[in-house]
Amino acid sequence: MTTGIIGQPLPRVDGRAKVTGAARYAADFNQPGQAYAVIVSATVGLGRVAGVDSAAVEKMPGVLAVLSHLNAPRLAYGPHKSYIDPATGERLHVLQDERVRFHGQPVAVVVATTIAQAERAAAALRVSYNAERPVVDCAGPEARAIVPEAGRQPDARLPADKARGDADRALAEAPVKVDETYDIARENHNPMEPHATIASWSGDRLTLWSKSQVVVNEQAEIAAIFGLPPESVTVICPFIGGAFGTSLRTWPHVTLAAMAARHVGRPVKLVLTRKQMFFTTGHRPRTVQRIALGATADGKLTSVVHEGTGETSRYEEFMEALTSVTTFLYSCPNVRTRYRLVPLDTGTPNHMRGPGEASGVFALECAMDELAYKLRLDPIDLRRRNEPATDQGENKPFSSRSLMKCYDLGAERFGWSRRTPEPRSMRDGRLLIGMGVASASYPAFHAPATARARLLPDGTAEVEIAASDMGPGTYTSMTQVAAETLGLSVERVRFSLGRSDYPPAPSHGGSWTMASVGSAIRAACIAVREEAAKGRKDRPIEATASSQRDPEAAARFSMHSFGAVFVEIAIDPDVGTIRVRRAVGAYGIGRVVNPRLASSQCTGGMVGGIGMALMERTVLDARDGRPVNAHMADYLMPVNLDIPQLEAHFVAETDPHVNALGVKGLGEIALVGIAPAIANAVFHAAGKRVRTLPIRIEDVLTRRSV
Amino acid sequence: MTNQEPFIAAAAESEGTRGGISRRSVLLTAGGAASIAVVPQVASQSVSEGGPASSMVRVRLAVNGTRHELDLDTRQSLLDVLREDLGLTGTKKGCNQGACGACTILLNGRRVVSCLTLAAMHDGARIETIEGLEKNGELHPLQSAFIEHDGLQCGFCTPGQIMSAVGCIAEGHAGSPDDIRFWMSGNICRCGAYPGIVAAVSDAAKRV
């Protein structure tokens, strides 16, 4: 084995393709004779389509078809549910009936020869409705919380209720308490690349160039929807222009593109508009959470209560790990968590970077900061006093846990010792300076995956797997794993991904790509190497191998990444503007395959966290569920000028239990912890505790949140 | 948060002096954006009157040094012409609302968002896109710098970032990291590669 390639800070192997415009994303795969489809979205938030006046539009120049529930083919919609779909409920069946379940639901699709003709015709289509008033506020008077069906069993992956000890009694008896509610706004992923599908039929065979974080599921799902054998469908997606979770599921536009292409008998390109990206492709659900902490006077936690509620749709129960981290982050004998959902007349939410954990840890880590102030303890000291030796929720040892090492390294790099703890005690000229800190954690998952490796007589190798690269650098890191395992230089390895006819990979999300795909590639390359060692090298040597987590290790250990995040902000006391001045994150994530790309991934996650803390909020009109800021200039996201100096550091951590590569994943934890560190810094700067995200100018200018 | 400021500022600054752009042409560009916004209304009116006719116009464009003579629908944006008519898919459509910068190209040497630029208004224009930067197999210094400083992740905003950076440097707005942050804020990077982008532009500015 050529050692030392894993761990090298190599530049991206696909860098040249990306800086020259040669990297092709879904909508770049123009097909000969292709037509264009544009979706018409419901303009009411609930009700029924009363009429579709398609006759006039059908006569417009270039229009090939207008499909609505009145004339769309009835599709098979065979059963299909993967691990990325909500366990309870059924996907939207698009254009199959007249019901409108939420604002923006597709009610028609217009196909025309050119994109300008299709856009114009879609805008001209008159759809009339019998409208009803939707319920879209999960904290409003009409909201009704339910117990999520898939969380009812105590051994569920995401239990609705979980407890150890007697948290409520311990809270009542605790000498020091914090009991507060935290409210996080709905967010939309808003990747730069809009969802796009080009569909092309050849007889009963369908090819989809489609933006997807899991091409094998898109293949299986579209096959089920159209009643085809899976091998009749091929999904191709070599590049993803960011996704952050929004392309995990196969949303209705993929079905519509395939339906339209079959109807008009030619390839069809369908790209969602930016506005439509706010309707049907998932969102981070708004959450409202109560955290109650009880502690002894010397800062030992005696009680933790975490009750969280998230939005979902009426037709599916979307669940995320909102309360999971609370069960193991700190040592405490009495812990009770509760997770509920509020079904609303909106589209179904979906995982967004750091799903559940990012929201849950925000509440817990803000409450810990509040407790530190009540106890007059340094917030890091409070965490040190409650550092557990084991996962007390699962009664298992951690496979590795470097949280305190992360605090030590981060504090040193950040200069935490220069902080004076009193709120409003630090200034830079007329600016109020605040320093905040928070813990971060995310599970170290590992899903089964299969890869194929081929050693050619010319001494080069080819490696294939149906994985994805939405930006973290899958192409590069997997090339490194293959090169090191095969004993080749990286230049001699050609790594391919993003085709559903390659060996199957799990979804590109949940921070498990490096562990799952990397381990499968390593296994395939070891098999090739062993075969090559037997002799003849004048013909290709090919091996396909799978990998999954050692079940014994999974049963023995609790496996998570940990990190500590430090943020410095400045608040202008006259106008209330909040600016992040610098951020330092220290992470224990096992082995780092490529430090250059890992650092980028971490600082990128920080940028997402800054957006969550200070900018991002999808606002729904209570009358009709319309997102009123469905525009990239109105849905605020960090731009270059908002981003200061960001640093990511990795503590040395060896974890032999998680997987053969010893990697724990990075994409999600990079966003977890940023928002609470910022909120805690806002309190330190201004002396005002803001428990609602995003934190706005008016929150620090008024006394409402003190 | 300051998505559009550099473009507005660039437009204001260019009045009268830079590259033969006059106040009139700036207003014309703004008019282009406005006319896109009213298209749906016009369309529905025409429909009720019994069917609209799209009008075509002949437009000559020099794209990356290659001359094209095209018969275009007057409603087409320069972005759609590049991507759908000329097959130059390196330029990306991120929002089609002029708010993200992914479609940034150079139009007669000035950076513009091509999604808000009607092709029909630019007969005779000289256009440069990401596909034209590499010369004889040699990457442009900005392209190399974006790789070296990892100023990208998913790569979707990258063509727009790089074309915008070409303009930013040419305008003399790349003198300091703070300058670059401000003048590159019309190009959103959702992956958050901003520190690498600033480092890349800063580095390349010394070499071009």
Automatic annotation (TrEMBL), chain A:
<feature type="domain" description="Aldehyde oxidase/xanthine dehydrogenase a/b hammerhead">
    <location>
        <begin position="20"/>
        <end position="133"/>
    </location>
</feature>
<dbReference type="InterPro" id="IPR037165">
    <property type="entry name" value="AldOxase/xan_DH_Mopterin-bd_sf"/>
</dbReference>
<dbReference type="InterPro" id="IPR008274">
    <property type="entry name" value="AldOxase/xan_DH_MoCoBD1"/>
</dbReference>
<protein>
    <submittedName>
        <fullName>Xanthine dehydrogenase family protein molybdopterin-binding subunit</fullName>
    </submittedName>
</protein>
<dbReference type="Pfam" id="PF20256">
    <property type="entry name" value="MoCoBD_2"/>
</dbReference>
<dbReference type="Pfam" id="PF01315">
    <property type="entry name" value="Ald_Xan_dh_C"/>
</dbReference>
<dbReference type="InterPro" id="IPR000674">
    <property type="entry name" value="Ald_Oxase/Xan_DH_a/b"/>
</dbReference>
<dbReference type="InterPro" id="IPR046867">
    <property type="entry name" value="AldOxase/xan_DH_MoCoBD2"/>
</dbReference>
<dbReference type="InterPro" id="IPR036856">
    <property type="entry name" value="Ald_Oxase/Xan_DH_a/b_sf"/>
</dbReference>
<dbReference type="InterPro" id="IPR016208">
    <property type="entry name" value="Ald_Oxase/xanthine_DH-like"/>
</dbReference>
<dbReference type="Pfam" id="PF02738">
    <property type="entry name" value="MoCoBD_1"/>
</dbReference>
From TrEMBL, chain B:
<dbReference type="InterPro" id="IPR036010">
    <property type="entry name" value="2Fe-2S_ferredoxin-like_sf"/>
</dbReference>
<dbReference type="Pfam" id="PF01799">
    <property type="entry name" value="Fer2_2"/>
</dbReference>
<keyword id="KW-0479">Metal-binding</keyword>
<protein>
    <submittedName>
        <fullName>(2Fe-2S)-binding protein</fullName>
    </submittedName>
</protein>
<dbReference type="InterPro" id="IPR002888">
    <property type="entry name" value="2Fe-2S-bd"/>
</dbReference>
<dbReference type="Pfam" id="PF00111">
    <property type="entry name" value="Fer2"/>
</dbReference>
<dbReference type="InterPro" id="IPR006058">
    <property type="entry name" value="2Fe2S_fd_BS"/>
</dbReference>
<dbReference type="InterPro" id="IPR012675">
    <property type="entry name" value="Beta-grasp_dom_sf"/>
</dbReference>
<dbReference type="InterPro" id="IPR001041">
    <property type="entry name" value="2Fe-2S_ferredoxin-type"/>
</dbReference>
<keyword id="KW-0408">Iron</keyword>
<dbReference type="InterPro" id="IPR036884">
    <property type="entry name" value="2Fe-2S-bd_dom_sf"/>
</dbReference>
<dbReference type="InterPro" id="IPR052914">
    <property type="entry name" value="Aldehyde_Oxdr_Iron-Sulfur"/>
</dbReference>
<feature type="domain" description="2Fe-2S ferredoxin-type">
    <location>
        <begin position="57"/>
        <end position="133"/>
    </location>
</feature>
<keyword id="KW-0560">Oxidoreductase</keyword>
